[in-house]
Amino acid sequence: MITTTNRTASGSAGIPFRSESTSRNRKATCLVRIVLSRTALLMTTNKKQILWVDDEIELLRSHIMFLDQRGYEVTRATNGSDALELIDRQRFELALVDEMMPVMNGLVLLRRIKELHPDLPVVMVTKNEAEELMDQAIGAHIDGYLTKPVNPSQVLSVVKGIVDKRRISEAQLSRRWVEGFGEISNRVDEDLDADGWLDLHNRICSWELELDEWGNAELKNMLLEVRLEADRRFARWIEREYPRWIASTPEKRPLLSMELVEDKLLPLLDGKGPVLFLVVDCLRLDQWMMLEPLLAEQFGLQRDVYFSILPSATPYSRNAIFSGLLPSEIERLHPDLWTKGDEDEASSNRFERQLLDALLERRGVKLQPGMRYVKVLEQEQAAEFERRVKDYLHTPLTAMVYNFVDILLHTRQSVEVLKEMLPDESAFRSVTAAWFKHSSLLRIIQAYGEAGGTVLITSDHGSIIGRRGAKVIGDRQTSTSLRYKHGRNLKCDDKHGVRIKDPPTWGLPRRGVNTEYLLTKEDYFFVYPTNYHRY
Length: 535
Hints:
Elements: H1 22-44, E1 48-53, H2 61-69, E2 72-77, H3 80-89, E3 94-98, H4 106-116, E4 122-126, H5 131-139, E5 144-147, H6 152-163, H7 165-189, H8 194-214, H9 217-247, H10 260-265, E6 275-280, H11 285-296, H12 314-323, H13 327-333, H14 345-348, H15 352-362, E7 371-376, H16 379-387, H17 389-392, E8 397-402, H18 404-412, H19 416-421, H20 425-437, H21 440-450, E9 454-458, E10 468-473, E11 484-487, E12 491-492, E13 497-500, E14 516-520, E15 524-527
Parallel strand pairs: 1-2, 1-3, 3-4, 4-5, 6-8, 6-9, 7-8, 10-15
Antiparallel strand pairs: 10-12, 11-14, 13-14
C-alpha cells in the first residue's frame, strides 16, 4: 500500500506591510480592503451567462426565473439580429435559440453563430419534430435539441449537461478516484495470478487515459507511483512464473505470443469474408484504448489480451507470433535466423511469411487463392496498399506488419523536435491517436469493414520509458540492445535484471556454447560502466 500525503495551506494568510509612515501603511491597508471587496463582489455575481433567443420570450419568465434560482443568469433577446449583437459584446456559456422566429429563423441564426463564434454551444428549442429539421440542425453542429412544450427541469438538465459538464464530471472524478485508487493500491499488495495482473494493468491504463483528459498532475503522479510499485512486484512474479509457463502446456498457462494465431486467428478463417491479420509493431494497450473509439462506430469490437514472450522485443515476440513456436523451437528449423544481431530486423524477421505459411500447413489450413503478406515500413507503402485494397479483399487472409509506432518511438531518440513533442507516455498516446485518425491504416481497416471482412489487430510487444541505468558487464560480442543482452559472461545487479544461464528453460535459442541472457526489470536500461555517467 502506497500512502501519499498532500499538504495544502488552509485558513487566511496575513499580508505584512513595511512602510516608513503610519499614513502610508493605512493607505496600503485600505487599498487591500478595496481589492478584496471588489473580488468578493465579483465572486457573488459570477453566475453562468445564458442567452435565450425567442420572439415570445415573455412567455418564458417562469423558466428564466427557475434558471436564475439555480445560478444561471439569463439574457433575453427577441430576434436573431439582437442576439448576434449581444454575442459580439458579451461572453455567454450557452445560447438557447427558438426555431420559429420572424426575419431570421433559428436555423439561420444557428449557422451564423457557428460561423462567427464556433465555440459557443447552441441548443435549439422548437415545436417542429420533423426529422429533416433535426438533420439540418445536426449538420449545422447543434449542441442540443429541445421539443416544445418544455418544462423548466428539462431546460435545466440540458443547460447543466453543457455548461456544467466539466465541473460536474471533475467532482464525480474526485469521488471515483478515491475509491478507484484505493482498489488499485490494494490490488498491488495482493498475491496476484496472471488474470489478476492483466486486470490490474487494464485498470491502471484506464485511469491513465481518464487523467489525461482532466490534466490533474497531482493524481497522475499518485498513479505513476502505483504503477512503479506494480512494476517492481510484477518483475519478481514473472521471474518466478515464466519458466514454469515454458515448461507447461497451453492449457495450464495464460495465452502467449506463439499461441496467438492458433487461438485467435484460425477460428476466423471460416470463408465468410476476407480477414486482415494486422500486427502493429510496438503498440501498447493504453495506445490501443485511444484507438478503439475511432473504430467503434463501424465495427463490433472485442478486446482480449495476451502475454508477450520474453524478451518482449521484435525478433522474439513477432517471430513467435507468425511461427506458433518458441524462439528455441524456431532455432531448430531456421538456425541461421539468430546468426546476426537482433537489431537487424531485416535479418532476424525475414522469415515471417514462411513461418506463417508453415504454421498454417501444420494446422491443415488450406486457403484459396492463398495467404498474402505485407510489411509496411514507409508511408508510400501504406498508401500503395490503400490504393490496391480492393485486390486484397478477394484474398481470404492478408497478414500485415505495420511499423509506424515502432519507427516513431525509435526516431524520437534522435530527433529533438520529437523529444519535445513526446516527453512522456501521455503525449505518446495522443500523437498515436492523432496519427491513426488520419492514417492510411484506418482507411484500410474501414475498407475491410465495408466489405464485410474481419480485422484481427494485435501487437508484438510494447515499450517503456527507461528512467534508470543499470550497469552491465559483457564481452565485445554482447548484443547492443538496451533492455536485454545475450552473450558470454554477462553480469548485472540482480535487483536490476534477470540472468538466464540456461536459455531453453526460458524458450530462448542457445546461440552457441555458453550464451547467456540478461533481461532488465522495471524501468531500467543496460549501460556499460564506461558510459554510465553519460546517462
